[in-house]
Structure formats: C-alpha cells, structure tokens
Amino acid sequence: MGDVTEELQQNLESGKDVEMNPKRAGRQKMMSYSLAGLILSNPIATKAASENGGYFLDKGKQEMTTNREERQVLKLIDEKPVSQAISAVAWSPDGNFVVASGSSTLHVTVWDARSLSVARVLDQGFGGDGGSNVAFSPNGRFLASGLSTVNLWDPVSGKLIKALVAPHVTPGIPQEIGVRSLAFSPDSKLIVVAYDGKKRIVIAYRVDDGKILWTYEPRRVIGIPLMTTPIAFSTDGKQLVFGTGERGGPEVNLKRLSRVLFLNAESGALIRSIDDIHVMNPTTLAISPNGRWVATATSTGVNDQTSNMKTKQVVTVDNQDPVRIWDMDTGKLFRDLPVLSRVWSLAFSYDGKTLFGAKSDIQSHMTLAVWDIESGRMVQEIRSNPGPMGLAVSPDGKRLAAASQSKLVVYEIAASR
Hints:
By secondary structure, this protein is mainly beta. The protein has a single domain, classed as Methylamine Dehydrogenase, Chain H, CATH 2.130.10.10. It is built from 2 helices and 37 strands. The protein has helices at residues 2-11, 43-51, and strands spanning 18-20, 23-24, 27-28, 31-33, 55-58, 64-67, 74-86, 88-91, 97-101, 107-112, 118-123, 134-136, 143-146, 150-153, 160-164, 177-184, 190-197, 201-206, 212-216, 226-227, 232-233, 239-247, 256-264, 270-275, 282-287, 293-298, 303-308, 313-318, 323-327, 333-337, 343-348, 354-359, 366-372, 377-383, 390-393, 399-403, 405-413. It has a 6-stranded antiparallel β-sheet with strand order 5-6-34-33-32-31. Strands 20, 21, 22, 23 and 24 form a 5-stranded antiparallel β-sheet that branches. Strands 7-37-36-35 form a 4-stranded antiparallel β-sheet, with no helix packed on it. A hairpin with a 5-residue loop joins strand 5 and strand 6. The chain is globular, with a radius of gyration of 21 Å.
C-alpha cells in the first residue's frame, strides 16, 4: 500500500481524486475514491488530512475519525472492561440486556443494557474447540450459547433448560469438534447449529423437544469445504445463509472457491449458491433487515503464497477485496465497499441504509467502520485498541454493541436523515 499512501499524501492539498487499483478475481479494476469519502488508515496521511481540514479528531474515551462532510453515525455511550476476551455479542429482544462471550472463556456474561452492570454470569461447562456463540430466541424465552454442546438458558433466571448434544459430540471429552455458529429461526421454533472440526455439519434442532429435524454436510467442489462465517436465517425464515471456503489441489493449481450457500430452512436442502464471492475465504456475512441484501467480507490485505509441488509454480493470492453486498434473490453483486484490512464482523443498521464492520487495522487501530450503502462510501471510522470482534444492533436500531476483546462497548446510532 506504500504507493497508494504516497499518492494520497501528494493529493491531499490539491483535493484531487485518487486512483486505487484493487486486484480482485484475477483482473485489474481501477476504482476512483474521492478524498472526501475515504477515511485514511495511514497515520501520516491521516495527520496530514486533519491538518488540511479534510478530517477531524474528536477526543473522548476513544479517538474518532470521521468525514466532516458526513454526519457522525456512531457516538460512544459507554464501555466496560472484561476479565477475559469476548468476541460474540447479542441483544435480548426487548433491548434490556446485552450478552457476550468468547472462545477463551467458559462463561457467558449478561449485562444490563442501560447501566452496563453485570446481571449474571452463566457457566457453559466443558469448552471444546468451538468458537464464541451467543443468541437470543426472538420470543425472548431462550438464550443459547455453544462451544461444543449448545446450552439453552432461561434468560431471566439464568437456569439451564436443556443441552443440545450432536450425535458426533461426546460431552466432557477433549475432541476436535466445536460449534462454529448458531441461529434461531424468526418464529423461535428452530435453532440451527454449524459444527466445525473433524466433522463439518449443520444441524437443525427443534427448540421444544431438542430433536434433530435435519442435517446438512457441505459437499466438496474443489477441496474440503470450511464453514467460515456465521450462519443466519433470511428475514422470512425460509432460508439459511452461510459462507464457505475451499482450496483445491495441484490438479486445479491450488485454486480457491469462496461461496455463499442458501439452504431450505424446512428441509436443509441446498437451494443455490453465489460462487467466487472473494479471492479468499469469506470471514463474515450479514443479512439486511429488509431481506434484500447479504453482505460479505474477507481477509483483505493478506498476501498468501503456496507452492504447487506438481507444477513447481508458486501460486500467489493478493487479497485486496472490498466488502461486498449481493442481491439475495438474483445473486448479483450490488455494491463494493472500500476496506484495507480483514473484517471480523458485519451488521446492518435497522433501516438497512448503513453497514457497520469490525476490522483489524493494526497500523492505525481504525477498527470500526461505517459505510453508507447507497453511495458506497466509508463515512466514519472509530479508533479502538484492541478492536472489536463481534457486532450487534439493538432491536430498536438505536444502539450498536461491540465485543472488543477486553471490553464491551455500546454506541448510539444516529437516526437517518
């Protein structure tokens, strides 16, 4: 990015548009970003821009950099430190509680959303190799958490109601199996769980009796399919959506395949897919509240080299992919949103006009991005160290919670104009 940064700095005083050349899907595409719509991640360039009047720093609990020509979308409300890293966060349906957890902790912490005081701490038991996963059922009756087994809690009393144990999981015994992601159906009747590890499988459980309704195992296309994003229901509850990544062998010159899969929520059958969404595995996805869009992101900024022992060639992938928004019905690309680093989590605003992203910009610590979807511009960045890993918008659309590893942070979301 050195050449891009130099060009940006050379054009700061003139206010010229800057041509950037992201390499994607094996072709060159010149993209012009107006300086007024681009938040700079290089510290020197950012300083120069602020001195030039292009941007300003608002000193508070966190440093915030925003385009002065755009409204400030996020404003810090409060933050609370945590003793163990958290990376997943969810709101209760009534908006009164925020729950968070992390893969390194065996506990789920429930906070009062107004005071950010701890309401209760739930012990998940044996950890396993799962990721951090928390979700409230839309009817508010259940709080789900999962590492290797899935626990369903009474969110009011904190009592464990039942544990969902997959046939391939043995509770209490170390094994290379874990919960990758989980999600409740909009009617709260199903909970769907994606398992990772030695057995990669999606299982739909009936919430009332815990019985398995269906299972789905991603089929190999060019390599072993890895489930690399959260799993989510479409807004009408008819489809399940998640991302996968594969890497082929020497016979396909180590080609990669990244996809969004759509399953029938009643049967678990594969309906369709959007293929080649990124040059590397997708890292996260989110569905817009109106059900029109699915947003995906990847490990932007990563350069990977692999040797093909069969052809003696070195295969290089330079990941400069943007965040992408796809049409849910047609599978066509709707919008590219600029980003320069890996994105961990995405969340749409309640009105679907804004997209929030938790990203890992190590150099500048600009780790929370805000994009205007209509214009495709990044209109705000928030500096936080350490940066957030998980994001969730409150049911009323007025707050954004961020699981920021060593702290829980809550922001106010400005109303759309």
